[in-house]
Write a structure and sequence with these properties.
globular, Uracil-DNA Glycosylase, subunit E, binds uracil, 2 domains, about 45% helix, about 10% strand, about 240 residues, 6 strands, six-stranded mixed β-sheet
Length: about 240
């Protein structure tokens, strides 16, 4: 296991010689402060990530230095929940509390998320997995940068491959746009079922946004009802 993990980390440009190598190929935007990942290039890094098991993925995320967020994080936050969940919820990036504790959605937005889940009979960890597009906190909760998303998204892709959820709920603009492969607004993406690599995808507002925009809670409720109906149609477990 250790040898395999070392080889995968090496292929990802996280091995001991990564500082000596070229920048990733195909990285349209470069991050001035990012370590220069290996001769393998961005697509080989992604391919290496796509072969990882959960242990390897956890180690790779914890050790990741692919963008400058590594310098300011306390914890990289992989995700939490049932590794065989039918429901996968995806947010944007850890905030201050998540960075401190190493778990997604444990702050104020997380409490609202738990209430939203409870409203449709779901509970964190029970047939539910929660992850973010970015595994590290952007300082001051600024928006993720395109380079950061590009570097981090293979981790989420691998999580989705390993979990094989029946349904994904993308919360907020970054998760929605990343998974729907669109730059449209949440308002125009919500209300219908998209697909992420064949997996049905429902888009809704981010809980942190809902804390500031209470009237949109009704729309988020409609989105959850759509998600629950879609899960029922897919033959998944729907409480109540
Ligand atoms: N906001 C997110 O998008 N994710 C978290 O984990 C916390 C807040």
């Amino acid at each position: 296991m250790t040898a395999r993990r070392d080889r995968l980390l090496e292929e990802m440009g996280l091995g001991p010689v990564w500082r000596l190598r070229r920048p990733p190929e195909g990285a349209a935007e470069t991050d001035a402060d990012a370590p220069r990942a290996g001769a393998t290039g961005a697509s080989d890094r992604a391919a290496a990530i796509m072969r990882m098991d959960w242990t390897e993925l956890g180690a790779a995320v914890a050790a990741c230095e692919a963008c400058k967020l590594a310098k300011t994080r306390t914890h990289a936050v992989l995700g939490v929940g049932d590794l065989h969940a039918e429901w996968l919820l995806v947010g944007e990036a850890p905030g201050a509390e998540e960075d401190a504790r190493g778990e997604p959605f444990v702050g104020q937005a997380g409490r609202l998320l738990d209430n939203m889940l409870a409203a449709i009979g779901l509970r964190r960890g029970d047939n539910v997995y929660i992850a973010n597009v970015l595994k590290c906190r952007p300082p001051g909760n600024r928006n993720p940068e395109p380079f950061e998303v590009a570097q981090c998204v293979p981790f989420l892709e691998r999580q989705i491959e390993l979990i094989r959820p029946k349904l994904i709920v993308a919360m907020g603009r970054f998760a929605a746009q990343t998974l729907a492969g669109s730059d449209a607004s949440i308002a125009s993406l919500r209300g219908r079922v998209h697909r992420y690599r064949g997996v049905p995808l429902v888009v809704t507002y981010h809980p942190a946004y809902l804390l500031r925009n209470l009237p949109d809670k009704a729309k988020a409720w409609e989105d959850l009802v759509l998600a629950r109906r879609t899960m029922r149609e897919l033959g998944g477990r729907v409480p109540g």
